[in-house]
Amino acid sequence: MSAAPGSLPPSQPAGPGDRDPGGSAQPRMGFFTDTSVCIGCKACEVACKEWNAVPEDGLLLTGMSYDNTGGLGASTWRHVAFIEQPAPAAGSGTGAGSLRWLMSSDVCKHCTEAACLDVCPTGALMRTEFGTVVVQDDVCNGCGYCVPACPFGVIDRREDDGGAHKCTLCYDRLGDGMMPACAKACPTQSIQFGPLDELRERAQGRVTQLREAGTAEARLYGQDPGDGIGGAGAFFLLLDQPEVYGLPPDPVVTTRDLPRMWRHAGIAAAALAGAAMATARWRRP
After folding, report:
1. Which of 117, 126, 167, 279 might form a disulfide with 108, Cβ 3.0–4.6 angstroms?
2. Where are the domains of the chain?
3. pLDDT exceeding 70 applies to what percent of the chain?
4. How does strand 164-165 pair with strand 29-34?
């Protein structure tokens, strides 16, 4: 049975890798963004702002492309990048010396191992039953610890209210059985929403299809649960290296070394305490 337009796909039994990191029975939901069919229309940006009441973030073009937002931020939860580059010589079908546009709608990755969530001192950042990471505006104290913790530079503080803001994967819509606004608005299905394991399988098939058609550079980014962030809840099909799209080639959760650092700090503190006690005993008459 297919889902109604704009609604969640029908629920299916979840396998071990399909459950959210919190361990609930709800399948983990996410985004698969296929940049090979993105047309740069920015319908996702507009739908995101309209549904979530995200403030205007600048109406001037950057001067480098048709991009008027430049990157993700507190008031830009979806960002469509326009990248102009020479077309590949083979398989492009456009002739030598021609150019091509790479377009991609970037978004928060909703990491499995989310550093922003790890460092939040108030619990404002939380993991939902859908496996997504959201900010609770009424709990955020604006400390900004989450901003440098994110390996993708996604989350940021808004100047007018001081709070941190980012994509919620339309948490309110998911609770009502609807798909996120950006995915519903996308006219080419570049942004696809559904159970994460199902999306990964679909994405791998799409990569195979593109490579068989001659697009050898097609690759997935963020889909691997064994990567430095435990796999992303929002992953991408790219047509070039991640750096071309402004993405880190090998992202690692920035809090990865915290346990080891605390262990070393504890050992150092114990050694200092021992030295202090030994000195006090030596000085005792």
Report:
1. 167
2. 17-254, 255-285
3. 78
4. unpaired
